[in-house]
Amino acid sequence: MLVVFKRTANEGDLDGLLDVLKREGLVGHVSRGVERTVVGVVGQTYPELRDKLEMLSGVEEVIPISKPYKLSSREFQSWNTTIQVGDVTIGGEVITIMAGPCAVESEMQLMETARAVKAAGAHILRGGAFKPSTSPYSFRGMGEKGLKLLAQAREETGLPIITEVLTPGDVEMVAKYADILQIGTRNMQNFILLDEVGKAQKPVMLKRGMSATIEEWLLSAEYILAQGNRQVILCERGIRTFETYTRNTMDVSAIPIIKKVSHLPIIADPSHGTGKWYLVGPLALASIAAGADGLMIEVHPNPDKALKDGPQSLNFDTFRQLTSQLASVVSAVGRKVR
Amino acid sequence: MLVVFKRTANEGDLDGLLDVLKREGLVGHVSRGVERTVVGVVGQTYPELRDKLEMLSGVEEVIPISKPYKLSSREFQSWNTTIQVGDVTIGGEVITIMAGPCAVESEMQLMETARAVKAAGAHILRGGAFKPSTSPYSFRGMGEKGLKLLAQAREETGLPIITEVLTPGDVEMVAKYADILQIGTRNMQNFILLDEVGKAQKPVMLKRGMSATIEEWLLSAEYILAQGNRQVILCERGIRTFETYTRNTMDVSAIPIIKKVSHLPIIADPSHGTGKWYLVGPLALASIAAGADGLMIEVHPNPDKALKDGPQSLNFDTFRQLTSQLASVVSAVGRKVR
Amino acid sequence: MLVVFKRTANEGDLDGLLDVLKREGLVGHVSRGVERTVVGVVGQTYPELRDKLEMLSGVEEVIPISKPYKLSSREFQSWNTTIQVGDVTIGGEVITIMAGPCAVESEMQLMETARAVKAAGAHILRGGAFKPSTSPYSFRGMGEKGLKLLAQAREETGLPIITEVLTPGDVEMVAKYADILQIGTRNMQNFILLDEVGKAQKPVMLKRGMSATIEEWLLSAEYILAQGNRQVILCERGIRTFETYTRNTMDVSAIPIIKKVSHLPIIADPSHGTGKWYLVGPLALASIAAGADGLMIEVHPNPDKALKDGPQSLNFDTFRQLTSQLASVVSAVGRKVR
Amino acid sequence: MLVVFKRTANEGDLDGLLDVLKREGLVGHVSRGVERTVVGVVGQTYPELRDKLEMLSGVEEVIPISKPYKLSSREFQSWNTTIQVGDVTIGGEVITIMAGPCAVESEMQLMETARAVKAAGAHILRGGAFKPSTSPYSFRGMGEKGLKLLAQAREETGLPIITEVLTPGDVEMVAKYADILQIGTRNMQNFILLDEVGKAQKPVMLKRGMSATIEEWLLSAEYILAQGNRQVILCERGIRTFETYTRNTMDVSAIPIIKKVSHLPIIADPSHGTGKWYLVGPLALASIAAGADGLMIEVHPNPDKALKDGPQSLNFDTFRQLTSQLASVVSAVGRKVR
What we know:
The structure is a homotetramer. Chain A is of the alpha/beta class. In chain A, 36% of the residues lie in helices and 19% in strands. Chains in contact: A-B, A-C, A-D, B-C, B-D, C-D. At the B-C interface, helix 8, helix 10 and helix 11 of B face helix 8, helix 10 and helix 11 of C.
């Protein structure tokens, strides 16, 4: 952290800063320039310190020079993290395809979909048993009954399952059934929940908050990592902008950025990222071309009868088309499909 | 809800829609225009239905004509909701001032602040015992010990207290101490938590999510109201935009909008809304001028030593200046200060 | 400007930077810390230099420590700029009210409005003769004929006039009629036009671009100031966010920020800032409470028949109500109405 | 357009609407529902009409049902527009690569770059002679001298040239040299300039405004088309969001959306879209995978010495790598490289 003083700052201001640093257990290295004095802060700092120093008398600006996240950074670990789920490896050379319905609605809907996505090349089955919904009057999922259906679908197809956990009290129960725990966009900063999945012995897929910066996203990953769970997967699913044509604006550039600054695998979710089924294919291809380690795609036997998010779901035919198109883009960027 | 067909739609498309509506238990009123056919949907609809209908063959667009929130709307209740907390009435003619430190840090810090804000005219004491923090390495609050200090401050000063609850498992415990439960911006869509505070017998102040639309905010209020708790207070605290000078962009226009579309009281939080203490005063005055029912202001004995959010906190002097300035703006818009 | 090197940077990287600085005519002051080396750059820098230095080998980050705008900053001029237009002073103790129709539509519409706004207390008459319109099929203004009507309205009422100029080729002609030249939001970065009004001998009111940061806005003001025209007025008119209830989100906090960092007067335009007439009053009061030097309000004899922006226009009655309400808020913040 | 009345609306409100429609030369088709009355508006409407009707007494909402742009829509022309520039066809099966420096700086810099990008497979040479710059103190381009250098580069390499025109007064001069006129992001709503290039006999590439919706962008294209110039190319270059890691957020989903709603070709500019050279490659591949008709890439012999936008420019080596990587993605999505 660098503290830049105003031109008009005096020795008292400098002493004031050095006092504060001492109280924080930090050391200040003073560097007097022609026009200004700058102090380098050495020791264990934290994000709020910046704001605190910035309001001291005489201080013009405080500049953080090391990133606030550590365990998720490439500086901390230079090689890519890979995560093993059954015989699927997430984050390696091979692209991972997660697919399934937004919400588990019935045994028939789920089994039918599980078989279809497996046949079309998916590696992991997705399906929500607990659904966050903006309105209290909407469908909120089948609960544990849905988890049991997911386990049954795994039994039959051999596909590992990923499903969302909404609240700390449910982590243990959901972890009993799921192979990967999913943290949804609205819970990216539900820190108690992050702590809790950080203690679970299961991989966690952390969706980006719809208005979260990349740094905040990595800090949320840090919560999970700091509890000792190093099996974290990131998932880009679109951010909120002024554009109203799409439900969200898929931030495809987040993919190569994550690859550069972090060692964690990253999955793209073009279904939520766009909100429209006819945009899912193009954005899926784009995400792979940009370096994503995999995709999460919503598939439903009858999207127009889906209880949740029908308009962004592919049906079996369009999903099959996508997986076959995908193969050539995957190999064009030097990756593989299983 | 109105379903507008494309010019090129045919009778089969219309029948398809009517079938779907029948399955949903809804009725479609068909109106054939010169160029297009439009169908009015009558019955109990829900937000996701719009998306579902929009993807049917031949459909151009679906237009919701009634708002998705009900209990929070002025149509449902034309008069203003007022909430009684001790002898403070929130939402009436008199402006409510909530003030105190961002986080409870120690007995001395809290007692000193409680006395100072009371002396300066505050009606309710704020203070966080459980703090959400973007980084796992930052201060996360004193927990129940902090709640006890708040209760002690209430004992001494007579000020009712408002404090944040972060997770469903804590609601009962926090409600034992607090007079008002606060739901923070990151939890605006933590629906399980909303359900839980909806069951509590305490007023709830719901902060706007930093990227939530006004409609989503009211839908979150709806969760609490739908559980039977009608004591809901809204709090505008700034939204996320491209501007980087301020931490958030305080959406002052949300204040008169809420007043128009809802009967719930609305409080403005210029401390979080701006993130800089020297903007708190101007935005506090602006919020009152725009019609807010009250203010929530961060005050700390030594902002430069605060463990959380020091740069946006007023000290005792600047808080006193604000409350005295406030009086004339309050009466300029026909409201009162106690 | 401070250049922060990576921990892994070597002497060659440092030499590379010093070479670049030399070529730019700048001097680098080297400061070697425990973990990193930091170089302070002294001399006349420019915004793009930052990006250039940031891509040099070994460089972690470049931090600008002086603001890129100069003439518009409070550091350059500590006292408030005031601008004299006839007997109206903009930027002093007295609040300035500019009002009139969005577009000049006819002699009768303009004269009637001019008389009404004058009677209600306006000091300057606004009216567009050249209108930017998102669609080529919409009304684009009366052109010079509209300017002549504005001049005629000034003749009759004595109110100075403000009107928009859209393109460099029109500056001379518009300046012949107008007392203040207005640069619209879509032209905030039309740099050729800024140069041109910078050469005119008339005050210029520069609206904030709908997605411009405060720094970019001040840099656009800098264009005008740098040409020698020191009579610049800023106008906040709302920014683009994800919220769809309002046309724009009025950034009320920009008002005290401008007052802090710049000496230029600032006017608030709640008509464009909200896009809804029933929000104009509350946001006008809020803007004054936050420190604005004046208001620009759209007024139309029959808003529901207006050719442009009817829904955000007040009629004569609601405008009169606003100006009378305004007086008490103005005095509550220690300002005056003429 | 559909006008939806409130439940509480009465016959007088309906008559009021019908009167307004009559005055506008429009016809209203009344449809009385169980709860509400809806009126379909037939005839030549315009965007502002919506707002005007929305404020009439008793009106709840006005819904536009036809898109405000016409000539640029797929409904107007179902086949893809292709544009011939020398022997390059933009918008057909073959991908077009435009490359060159952000700004023309010298004969040597331009010639060297022109030869290098040609050798690496580029089809069109880009280079700015007139540069918009946020600060008046920055480099603003070589002007006509730069245009002459571009013409000389075309002479030598055979590459057609694209260059930006900033102001209506320059269109004729720039068109004398350029093969394609470029309208920059800050001028997307410079309507006088759009009119002027609409009258030119040269293709125009229209960049998306950094805060423009897709609809506004197509309305700006409409200005050019409406003047009779049908050779319009769209260019996605990133939009402004809260994310600060990238200069802009490249809206990759805009590519398949444009392909769906419009017949105009679309080019992706990942250099401006990201602002960082190491993101250019991944986003270029992503854009092609998403369906773009071509790319615009900044290339500079020495990015660290560039006068403009060095950090987002590729050098000759990285550009060559990109074009060779590109070939396999292009063929993976069934397109061709020349």
